[in-house]
Design a protein that fits this description.
seven-stranded mixed beta sheet; two-stranded parallel sheet; about 15% helix; globular; alpha+beta
Length: about 280
């Protein structure tokens, strides 16, 4: 069962050209995704983007004699543990726990093995001019809205999440990323930032975990992959985040409140996280 679900998840990271490159993935049909399936002709290209080499947020080259990672463990301030359980390390390289992706190396990702992220799903009820919660005519359920940002790199709509810094708690990551991408905190002065932080402090203390695990991200490779914790923060009466002016910042090109529904086309696995949040609140989908 889980193998089939994983293969269904591994869709975005088997498509054609690797993001922001001219490198074509080796074609991997669904039946050949699992490592247990014999695939003798499998010969994927080895690709790591130039921007990754030497970057302060990235691991060294896998062949660097001074690089001695502790796979499947907490390695200093870096977590090399996977939410999927222990992954296999073959010939010195960790293997994607879901299976083949058609490319080896790190691609655009900094870490060998799991690259951990945090994704905040900040929600409120959609209200009409009188302040009443709007009800869908098709499902007769209340309509939930969430904060979405438009990615500057792909143009796709997504959650305002990002990578967990070494030693950082996921709860801190999601608040930091929300402030940077949805409130443009990097361009605000200290007084403004302190005011926003104070407003959001308690709000971001009580997130509900709606997903924790592997992410079908187009940047994944056979040796580096994305994992995330998706946390739902709900503003029931719209008095907290619902009243803050959204402003795109950092690498976000745009930001807005977006209605939740099954027609949404979001980046990577973000549609799944939004759907799980809608189900949690028994909202329209």
């Amino acid at each position: 069962m889980y193998g089939r679900i994983f293969r269904m998840l591994n869709q975005n990271c088997r498509k054609g050209v690797y993001p922001r490159s001219n490198i074509y993935r080796f074609e991997v049909l669904e039946d050949n995704v699992p490592w247990k399936t014999e695939f003798p002709e499998y010969n994927p290209p080895d690709y790591t983007a130039l921007k990754v080499y030497g970057a302060p947020w990235a691991d060294p080259n896998i062949n660097d004699p001074e690089f001695r990672p502790k796979w499947n463990e907490i390695d200093g301030d870096i977590s090399r543990k996977s939410y999927t359980g222990n992954y296999v390390v073959k010939e010195g390289r960790p293997l994607n726990p879901v299976g083949r992706t058609g490319i080896i190396g790190r691609g655009l990702l900094g870490r060998w093995g799991p690259n951990h992220a945090g994704d905040p799903i900040v929600t409120r009820w959609k209200r009409n001019g009188t302040g009443a919660v709007e009800i869908s005519r098709t499902t007769e359920k209340p309509i939930l809205q969430f904060v979405a940002i438009q990615r500057g790199d792909t143009g796709e709509w997504a959650l305002p999440g990002g990578m967990v810094d070494p030693g950082e708690a996921v709860a801190s990551t999601v608040q930091r990323e929300f402030m940077e991408e949805a409130l443009n905190s990097l361009e605000k002065d200290d007084l403004e930032i302190d005011s926003v932080k104070e407003t959001l402090k308690k709000f971001f203390e009580n997130g509900d975990n709606v997903y924790q695990g592997y992410v079908d991200d187009p940047r994944n490779t056979d040796n580096s992959w994305m994992e995330t914790v998706a946390l739902n923060f709900h503003d029931e009466d719209g008095s907290i985040v619902g009243k803050i002016n959204l402003q795109a910042g950092d690498d976000a090109a745009n930001v807005r409140w977006m209605d939740m529904n099954k027609k949404l086309a979001l980046y990577s696995s973000h549609g799944l996280f939004v759907k799980l949040s809608a189900q949690k609140h028994n909202a329209h989908w």
